Amino acid sequence: MKKRLTLFLSVLTAVSVFAAGCGKTTNNPPASGKESEKPAQTTSQPSQEPTPNNDPFEITIRHTQVGESKKFRLALLEEVVKKTEAAVPGLKIKLDPVDSEVNRKEKLRGEMAAGKPPEIFDVFGSPDAALYAKEGLMLDLTDILNELGIKEKFNILAPFTYEGGIYGLPIGGSIEGYFYNKEYFEQKNLKIPVTIAELEEIAAAIKADGKIPFAQSSKDAWIPLMTTNNLWSYYAGVDITYGFKTGATKWTDEKMVSAVAKHQDWVNKGYFKKGELGFDYADMRNQVITGEAIMMMDGSWANSVFRDPAQAGDLVGKIGYFNMPPVNAGDPIIVMQDANNGYGFSSAVAKDPRKHAAVKEFIKNMWTDEMQLRGLKEDGLLPAMKMDLEQMKTTSDDPLMQDIFRAVSEIGTSYPAFDALVQADVNTALSIGIQQVIGEGLDPAKMLESVQAAQDAANAMEQ
User: Fold this and answer.
1) Could you state, in order of their start, the residue ranges of all structural domains in the chain?
2) Which of 60, 159, 336, 350 is the 20 to 30 A CA-CA neighbour of 296?
3) How confident is the model at residue 52 (pLDDT cuts 50, 70, 90)?
């Protein structure tokens, strides 16, 4: 098993850019069959009840709540840790913070190849969880979720499901769209666009005013690919992405070429800041906060930055949110809506009743209505568990959150991000390609030919 996974992950890394219930331990071994046949003794001695094992033991939680923008999420995790430690005798939880990209593409892969992941770890559902579950490295949570009565309370568990088992839980949901400077829009009498053409007109006006239309950081390719993925979902349709892995559709489709060409056209027109390939994720938020840029494509999770005076300063209350509009007015609004990031659990905990009990207690404390609503109110994270939209609206009266709730209500068609639907090698090829389109002016058709070649190779390996 380890050999197969090691081989797969070494290839992946080489091309990458980017049960139910708990047992109890006792200090007294169970009686043998022979002893159990002895007649009961009628002495006055007290019965020998099993004593709980309170000896100290430790589990590790690998999390990615690193940096100022994730401080609220970290606070919620720390609260859950305290509750869990208090409920499980002898338990000490060690928090291991690691940057999200480093964890996903380097650290966790190496640990999985060695067969020794932490007991609890941040993980992407699709495709990562299925890969690790296939090799027997992740704990099937089905029995725990049934015992706790929460299995049916999640909006979606498909990204963490493999052959009927559930191998991880999403921590929250998200959509992708545009954050924008409401004050600037009001001053310039700009309206929320209802078509991509109107969005381009707004971008041109902002550029003419000496501002950057779209904040962007492309050092990590997944960031500009949010824009590209949203564009191709409109130009080529959401279904096209589902067909790449089966061979039913092609990256080289002329509508895909048109979508990538549109992104490149925005680069050529100066709608993004020059040098974007050298900017980190936090840099594009700062472009908005300093007033240098007016709009920014990002996940809804970024709202916590703009609601925090320590990070956004005077911009708090002045940032709004809208969906990328369709090509034609009146067409359904298409939005990336996902719940693909969460926590997974090592299959090794099943061999240790105390660690298994700790994992169950962690899940019991983390995935509750209270924590989901607090995550929404304090961190702006959309719930992973089923919540009525009206309940969400009353949980947070923040104007930016109300804009995001409105955006959710407008969705006509939703889809998961492309990297949940294609193989890692294809993601790598696309990541390299979009950076070449942005930085080197690579022809979109040629770039997509390279991605299709990677797709063909990946599909052939799975036959």
Assistant:
1) 55-173+339-387, 175-337+403-461
2) 159
3) low
420 and 408 Cβ atoms separated by less than 8 Å:
no
- What would the pLDDT profile of 183-234 be if each residue is shown by its tens digit? 999 999 999 999 999 999 999 999 999 999 999 999 999 999 999 999 999 9
Sign of the alpha-carbon torsion through 317, 319, 325, 329: positive
At residue 57 the predicted structure's pLDDT band, cuts being 50, 70 and 90, is very high
CATH superfamily of 55-173+339-387: Periplasmic binding protein-like II (3.40.190.10)
Task: Spell out the long-range contacts of 436-444 with Cβ–Cβ below 8 A and sequence spacing 24 or more.
Answer: 437/260, 437/263, 437/264, 437/267, 438/218, 438/224, 438/264, 438/267, 438/276, 438/277, 439/218, 439/277, 441/264, 441/268, 444/257, 444/260, 444/261, 444/264
* pTM of the complete model beyond 0.90: no
- 321 phi, psi to nearest 5 deg: -150, 140
Report how far residue 437's alpha carbon sits from residue 91's, in angstroms, rounded to the nearest whole number: 51
> Alpha-carbon distance 96 to 89, whole Å?
21
CA separation for the pair 327, 361 (Å, rounded): 48
- The three-state secondary structure class of 457 is helix
Helix (H, G, I), strand (E, B) or coil at 379: helix
Q: What pLDDT, in 10s, does the model give residues 108-159? A: 999 999 999 999 999 999 889 999 999 999 999 999 999 999 999 998 898 9
